[in-house]
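User: Write out your own:

AI:
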Amino acid sequence: MLHTSAQPETAMRPSPSLHSLLPALLRDEAGRYCAAFAGYRLHSVFQPLYYRSGSVFGHEALLRVTAADDKPLRPDLLFASLDEADARQLDSLALVMHLHNFAQARCEGCLSLNVQAASLLQDGLLPLLQQLLPALGLAADGVVLEVLEYELEHSPLQLAGSLRRFSEAGFGIAIDDFGATASSHGRTRALNPDIIKFDRSMLLDQQLGDGGRLASELQLAWQIGCRSVVCGVETTEQFAAMQALGLELYQGYHLGRPALLAVRELL
């Protein structure tokens, strides 16, 4: 765990500092990091992503939230209940927790992190990550930042500019839930992401005989030279159908469920 010296408070801090986030981190009995936030307990689980060959490409970190009565709460509902400043605090805390847990597991492959658009638009997130990663033995080129396509559609110019800064710093960029809404090919080409993660609805449409939309979006991924991921693969039949289309990466319950990672080195 990274230790930082105290820094003076500023009246207009654009995003949470690492120094302010670390005290919220706790450990469970196995040595994994969890966190306390506004009366809730936060945990990390990780879902693997696989190449066509079956080898591991990486893991996506997913947030799990439990209330004081130990009942689970959907993370999106917690985010929706917060104002923008608290939502950024929660998002940054979850990222710091996920990075600690992934670093302790010493897993092969990359780590994929879901990041709220409001966090990416703030100036403080990039230096926070650049401070934390070396202390955990991680590098920016092993971390992929996922942003939802609809958020990119909502504030395209500002968010695209922020994502380019992260890309220039070495981070991978992924567009998540691609195809869940009407997709802008021009905007996607301009952003030039490293990964496109196709929404599960496209897989289901293809299974029902309407594969034109998925074929079109796959062509886009090939043209701009980015990796393509199909999400929500839950059956052998779906996996075989997606392999037949030539997708490179796969994620879903059929291949691996979200789970805790074993601690191999305490940090």
Observations:
- The CA atoms of residues 65 and 74 lie 7 Å apart.
- The first strand starts at residue 25 and ends at 27.
- The chain has eleven helices and eleven strands.
